[in-house]
């Protein structure tokens, strides 16, 4: 036991590096510095009014008690209809869909339900830090597969095959991806589907950014490929598409036997997502969708501006993001490590970005820049980044 009394399990899990950057930025702000925040992965928009109104109406109507562990039925039915429409996959609202307190809860519940001690979980590197942390909490072993810029952030199937073992229980797929902005192509997903059937592993497919896609790219869920619904747990939610990060509403869609096990974890964890927040989510899904289209159009404008601006700065380069709201920028040409680049950019130029190593070893040499901040802030940040890189002298 360590001296603090903290479990070995939790002591071994590092705190989120994104939070660390955020705290540093806050400390500088407290000293009176003007910081441009491009480190946080949340839309800067307010939640659309009709969604707020639906939650307030639920409160007024006294919908303030526990709901079913599975979540309110009308929301599960609406999710079932949207999965059928968007992916072409039928999910029974009675037993195949669980409303969770954000997608983050769905990730932990799924891993707890599927992973035994010693089981291996393949996680993307770079990738969202919750997957390896949740795996460690379940006493599983995270095994990283890499996503590289030179490969358009697609999965290298040869590498993936080399990482499979009889202990591989789960492969985590994320499309569109945080932090790379990449999207997995159908041919890659089809191959992974064959491997899953051959080796008997399951898939957790995090599709939280599935409405944020640009340049006409198509979202493909592995659950929609032949025979794959039975092996896949879809993770999704309302945080990103409807600017509802603080509402904490997400969902899991899975075949019945898996959903029953996941719901058991959920039941003993949060009981249910907040009742009135679920009514807000229902309005989000069943109400007008122009709010999503407008947000995505604005993200697209910022994406192109940021992407072009970054590539015009000597020493920096960035593949064109396909989805989500992140650009993954190669800073190796500046002669600094990602950690040094991010730290000096923050203290010397007042721009907060996340060093890629926070998301795994393959993220070394890159920084994640979120374009979920205003166009004007991105404009200001680009100016500062340009001056900062010039101040470094000759780029390599
Ligand atoms: C890939 C991915 N999945 C899930 C989440 C969390 O979503 P939620 O707010 O619904 O928990 C995030 C948040 O950054 C994310 O990047």
Q: What's the architecture of the largest domain, going by CATH?
A: 3-Layer(aba) Sandwich
How many domains make up the coordinates? 2
End-to-end CA span: 47 Å
Rg, Cα atoms, Å: 21 Å
Oligomer description: single chain
- The rough form would be described as globular
CATH class type of the largest domain: Alpha Beta
Give the distinct bound molecules.
pyridoxal-5'-phosphate
For the largest beta sheet, what order do the strands appear in spatially?
2-8-7-6-5-3-4
State the CATH superfamily name of the largest domain. Type I PLP-dependent aspartate aminotransferase-like (Major domain)
Low-pLDDT segments? none
* Helical segment count: 13
Largest sheet: 7 strands, mixed
Instruction: Give me the secondary-structure category.
Output: alpha/beta
Describe the protein in words.
The structure is a single chain. The chain has 396 residues and is of the alpha/beta class. The chain folds into two domains: 8-46 and 290-389, Aspartate Aminotransferase, domain 1; 65-286, Aspartate Aminotransferase, domain 2. The chain is 41% helix and 14% strand. The longest helix has 22 residues, at 290-311.
């Amino acid at each position: 036991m360590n001296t603090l009394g903290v479990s070995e399990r939790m002591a071994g899990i590092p705190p989120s590096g994104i939070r660390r950057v955020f705290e540093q930025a806050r400390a500088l702000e407290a000293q009176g510095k003007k910081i441009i925040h491009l480190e946080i992965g949340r839309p800067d928009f307010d939640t659309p009014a009709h969604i707020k109104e639906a939650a307030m109406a639920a409160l007024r109507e006294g919908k303030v008690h526990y709901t079913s562990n599975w979540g309110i039925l009308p929301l599960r039915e609406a999710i079932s209809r949207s999965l059928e429409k968007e992916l072409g996959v039928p999910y029974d609202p009675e037993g195949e869909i669980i409303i969770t307190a954000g997608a983050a809860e769905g990730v932990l519940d799924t891993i707890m339900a599927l992973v035994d001690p010693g089981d291996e979980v393949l996680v993307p590197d770079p990738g969202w830090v919750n997957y390896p942390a949740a795996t460690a909490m379940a006493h599983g072993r995270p095994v990283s597969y890499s996503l590289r810029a030179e490969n358009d952030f697609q999965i290298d199937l040869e590498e993936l095959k080399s990482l499979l073992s009889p202990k591989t229980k789960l492969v985590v797929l994320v499309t569109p991806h945080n932090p790379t902005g990449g999207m997995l192509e159908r041919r890659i997903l089809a191959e992974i589907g064959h491997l899953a059937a051959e080796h008997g592993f399951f898939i957790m497919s995090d599709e939280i950014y599935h409405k944020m896609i640009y340049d006409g790219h198509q979202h493909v869920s592995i659950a929609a490929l032949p025979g794959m619904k039975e092996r896949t747990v879809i993770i999704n939610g309302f945080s990103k598409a409807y600017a509802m990060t603080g509402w904490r509403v997400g969902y899991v869609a899975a075949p019945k036997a898996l959903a029953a096990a996941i719901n058991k974890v959920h039941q003993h964890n949060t009981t249910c997502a907040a009742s009135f927040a679920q009514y807000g989510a229902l309005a989000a899904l069943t109400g007008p969708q122009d709010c999503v289209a407008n947000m995505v159009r604005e993200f697209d404008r910022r994406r192109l501006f940021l992407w072009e601006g970054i590539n015009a700065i000597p020493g920096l380069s960035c593949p064109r993001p396909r989805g989500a709201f992140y650009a993954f920028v190669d800073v190796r040409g500046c002669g600094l490590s990602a950690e040094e680049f991010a730290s000096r950019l923050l203290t010397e130029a007042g721009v907060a970005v996340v060093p890629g190593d926070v998301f795994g070893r393959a993220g070394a040499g890159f920084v994640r820049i979120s374009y979920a901040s205003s166009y004007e802030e991105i404009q200001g940040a680009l100016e500062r980044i340009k001056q900062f890189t010039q101040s470094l002298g000759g780029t390599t």
